[in-house]
UniProtKB/TrEMBL annotation:
InterPro entries: NTF2-like_dom_sf, SnoaL-like. It holds the Pfam family SnoaL_4. Transmembrane segments: none annotated. This is SnoaL-like domain-containing protein. It comes from the Bacteria. Residues 3-66 form the SnoaL-like domain. It comes from Actinopolymorpha pittospori.
Amino acid sequence: MELTQHMLTSHVVSVHDDEATVTFHLQALHYHSALGEGPEVNTWTLYGRGTFRLRRTSGRWKICSTRLIGLHSTGNVNMVADLTRRAPA
């Protein structure tokens, strides 16, 4: 991708002993000019929600799993496949 911007918002953190869960909302913008002009072909934005699970080990929190659920998207939902086809062999 030529440009990406991933924003995580509305974090909710739950801690139980050495385990924690963080839920959040996501907006992930992807752009590549090689696909042409106009956001319908050169931009893909994914909206969703996600979860990080963390574990405290030796006093440090580490992410042990992630999950993302896509709820809506706009633009070129085939952007990754389109760029893969254009890549030199």
